[in-house]
Design brief:
Blueprint lengths: L12 H18 L13 H4 L4 H18 L18 E4 H18 L1 H9 L11 E4 L13
Parallel strand pairs: 1-2
Helix pairs in contact: 1-3, 4-5
Length: 147
């Protein structure tokens, strides 16, 4: 499971679709509707929020908005109704780690998409709208071996 801290606008088509599916799975886990993935490290930061369900719903809303901007029709009725969550933090180290990880994936599956991102000179990519960047290293929950 990868619930990206990166702005969904950086994801290629496959990445955006996978992000949507995986965030829907995260929503099911966080709301107790599935027994799988309950200990997945990516969910720790959502569980630490005052309202984890609102946080993942807000996350999904931004992914759906990006899909809308590309002409895709993600089914927003699959997002549980919750108040908008306040922002969460993500460390610069975590964002940089994910940016490197995404670039490695794009090198193989979407080199043209990667080239378009690099043409925008993205030394420091934007975070997902739910996140506010703070100084710090890669998150303790991140699995840092190559995937």
């Amino acid at each position: 499971m990868r619930v990206w801290s990166l702005d969904p606008a950086l994801l290629d088509r496959q990445g955006l679709l996978a992000c949507w599916r995986e965030a829907l799975l995260a929503q099911a886990v966080l709301t107790g509707r599935t027994r799988g993935y309950t200990r997945h490290p990516q969910l720790l930061r959502f569980r630490e929020q005052p309202d984890p369900a609102a946080a993942i719903a807000t996350y999904l809303g931004a992914v759906a908005t990006e899909a809308d901007s590309r002409g895709y029709s993600f089914n927003r009725s699959r997002i549980d109704e919750h108040p908008v969550s306040p922002t969460m933090t993500v460390s610069q180290g975590q964002l940089d780690f994910e940016w490197d990880h995404l670039q490695r994936k794009l090198t193989l599956r979407s080199p043209q998409w990667l080239e378009s991102l690099r043409a925008r000179c993205l030394a420091h990519p934007a975070p997902h709208p739910l996140f506010r960047v703070v100084p710090g290293p890669v998150a303790a929950w991140e699995i840092t071996h190559s995937s």
